[in-house]
Amino acid sequence: MSLITPALAAEFAAPPAEDRVMMRWWWFGVGADEADLTRELESMRSAGIGGVEAAFLYPLDPDPRQPAFLSTRFRELLRHAADEAHRLGLRFDLTLGSGWSYGGAHIPSALAAKRVRFAQRATGPHGGDLPVHGDWPEDRVVAAYVGEGQPGDRRGGWSPLEIVDDTVHVPAGRGPRTLLLAIAGPTGQQVKRAGLGAEGPVLDHYSAEATRHHLASVGDALLDAAGGPGRVHAVFCDSLEVYDADWTDDILAEFARRRGYDALPLLPALHVHADPVFRADWHRTLGELAEERFLGELADWARERGVRLRVQNYGEPPTTASAFRHADLIEGEGWGWRGIPQTKWASSAAHHLGVDVVSSETWTWVNSPSFRAVPLDLKGEAHEHALSGVTRFVGHGWPSSPRVAAAPGWAMYASGALSDRNAWWPVAPELFAYLQRLSTLMRRGEHIADVGVWLPYDGARASFAHGGERNLWRRCAERVPIAVTTAIRAAGYDFDVVDAGMPAIARRHRVVVVTERPGPDDAAALSAVAAAGVAIVAVDADLGVAGARRTSIDDLGGCLAAIVAPDAPVDRAETVGVVHRRLDDGDLYLVANTSASEERVELHPRTPFTRWERWDAHDGSVAEGAGSIRLVLAPYEAALVVTGDGEPGAHEPADAAGERRSLRLEEWDVVAPDGSTRRVPLPHRWEEDETGTVVYRARVSLDRAARAELGFDLAGWPVPARTATQPQSFQAHAAMPVGAVARVRVDGQDVGAIWDAPWRLALDLPAGASTIDLAVSSASVAELRDPAWRRIFADAERVHGVRFTMQDIDVSDEAHPAGLFATPVLVIG
C-alpha cells in the first residue's frame, strides 16, 4: 500500500496523456507537404509527445515561388496538420502570427508600434517662429521646450512652448539656449523571423484597435483555417519583444486620467533621465495599457472564439507578473533556479491564481548549436524549470523538415533541434515518459513557499533609460540581488515573487522580503499585507513600513528562521534544490541535483512524518525508505520523495540489497551493418564525420537465471570539453560512460535504455549463454559540418534575404564524443 491516495500512485504508474511534453513545431514557410506533416506527427506520438504548438517562421526552401503565409496552400496544410493531430489524439495549439512579436503587412503605420524620441539644437537669445517636423512622414512633433544654456552646459528645467500649425513660437531670451522637440512616430520595428508574406511592422501593443485589427486579419484566419475550437486547444503569445515602444496616440490623456497630473510638461525627464517619480508613473501607465489593450483584448477574443489563451507575459511592454491573470494557460522560460528566471515569474503568478499547470518554453538554447544537445542536457535543464515551479514542459522545439533535406534536416537558428532526425532519438520515449511522470506529480497538491519576494517595480520603472530596454521582469530580476534569493533557498525555503496585484499573499506566505524602498502605492500594499499577519523583512533597505524587520543578506536565513521554521532544508543547498507540494494525505518533495558531481544529501522536512517513499519517474516504481531521508544523487539526478504517516508498506526498501556479485564485461565486439564483428578495446570512440548508432556486443554465461543491474565502472572516465556558447545555453557537464545513449537488448529482445545518470538499467538474464547488445547512439551535431547542410541556409538567404543568423555553427566543428567510454559491469543478485 502506498503512503498516499492509491489513485495518485496509479496515475504515476500510468500518467495521463495531458501531462505529456508538448513540442513547438516550427514551420519554415511551406516547406513540407502533407506526407511530411503526417509522418512527423506520428513520430511525435510514438515518442510520447502529447501535442504541438504550430509556429510559423522564415522560409528555408529557396524556391521563390513557394506559397506565402496564409495563402490557400498554407491553409490547406494547416488544416491537414490540425486534422491529423486530432486523429492521433494530439493537442494542437496555434501561434497567432508568423515570427514575433505580432504584426505584419496588414498593420498600417497608424497601428504600428510607436515611440517618442527627442531632438535638440542650440539657439541664441533671439525669438521667432520655427517650423518643426520629424525626419519621417509618419512623425509628429507632440511637444517643444526651451531651456537655458547650450546642450553641453544647460542649467535648470524646460519651459513648454506652444505648437500651432507645425510651428513653434520661441520667445526671446537672455542668452544661449537649447530647443528640445518631442517627436512621436513608428519605432520601425519589423516582425522578426517572419515568413513570406508576413513581413511588416510590429503592432502597437498599447492600442486596442491595433490588437483587434491583428486578430481580425490574422488570428481569425489562422483559427478558421485550422478548424476552429474543434481542432485547436489554445492560441499562443510568445514573450513580449516590442523594442523602444513607449507611445500611443492617447497616452497623454490616459496618463492624466490614471495618474492625476499632466505628463506633457515633464516629458523631457524621459530624455535627460530626471524625475524618477514621473518616469516610474510613465512606465506604469504603459504597462497598464498593454495589459488592458493587448492581453485583455487577446483574452476576450479567445473566449469569444472558444479557445484557451496561453501567454508568456514578460518582456517589453513592461507588464507586471500579476497581469498573467488574463491568461488561461501560464507559461515561462529560462533556467537558473536560485534566481528569478521567467519561469519563476510565471509560476509565482500561477500559484497565486490557483492554477496547477504552469508550462515552460524548455530547451530554447540548450547546448548550442542545433543537434548538439543529448537527453542528459534536456533532463538537466528540465529539472531547473521544475525547481522554479514549472509543472509542464513545452519543448523548443521540433523543426519541420522534408525528408529529402540534407541530414540532419532543417533547423531553427537557435537550438535545440529535438526531432527524430537526432541519432539519439531511439531513447526519446524514455526521456519523455520520465518528464510526463514528473509533470503528473508536480502539479498535484499545493506548492509550499513560505517566502514572498516583493518585486521592486517602482525602482525598476524609474531606472528605464530612454531608448533602452523596458523589460520589467529583467530589471526586477537584476535589482533583487541573487544573493538574496540564494540565501532564501540555502536556508531551506522556497519563494514566490509577489506584487500588489496578487490575491493570495497573506494565505500563501509567512514572510515577504523587500530589497528596496517602495513607492507610496506599494508601501500601502505592504502595510496591508503586514496587517494581515505576514512578517515584512527589509534586506539592507529602509522601507518606511511600520513593523518591518531589517536585516542583512548575511543574516537573512537566521531572520527568516526566527519567524518560521525552515520548510525543507537540505545539505549541499548550493547545488541541490527542493520543491515541496502538500498533498491531501501526505507531502511530496522534488530533490534535484543540479551539478555535474554526485551529491550525498539529507532532507529535513519541517512537516512530521513516520514513513517515506522514493518514487521513480523513470518507471513509476515506488521504494520504501528507512530512517532519515538520506539520498545519493548522481549528476543531474532528481528524487521524488513522498512522506506521510502509517505502518511500513509492502514496497521493497530503497536501500535493500541481498548477496550480490559483480561481473566486469571487458570484451566487446562492434557489429557491422552486415552482421560481422570485430573486437575493440575499451574505452572505444568513433569521431569521424558521421553520426548514428554503433552496436557493441558482449556475451555472458550464468549458471542460473538472475535479476541483474547493468552499470559501468566509472573510474577515470573523462568529462568532455565543451566550448562555452550563449550564456543562456544550458549544458550538462557530467562525464558520460556512453556517447550519448544506449538501447540495451538481451538475446535480441529490447530491455530498456541507458540515457541518464546514474547510468544503470535493471534486467533479467536467463541461465546459460546470453548476448548483450548496446546500441550506442551519438548526437547528430557532426552532420552540421557537411557543406550540403550549410548550403540550405546560404541558399535561403540568397533568395529570401537575411532573415536570421545560424547560431554557433563554428562550435559544430568540435569533436563530439561518441562511443563506449567505460567498462560495463553486471551486478547480479
Automatic annotation (TrEMBL):
The keyword Hydrolase applies. InterPro entries: Ulvan_degrading_GH (IPR053161). Keywords: Hydrolase. GO terms for molecular function: hydrolase activity. Pfam families: Glyco_hydro_106. The keyword Hydrolase applies. PANTHER family: DNA-BINDING PROTEIN (PUTATIVE SECRETED PROTEIN)-RELATED (PTHR36848), SECRETED PROTEIN (PTHR36848:SF2). This is Glycosyl hydrolase.
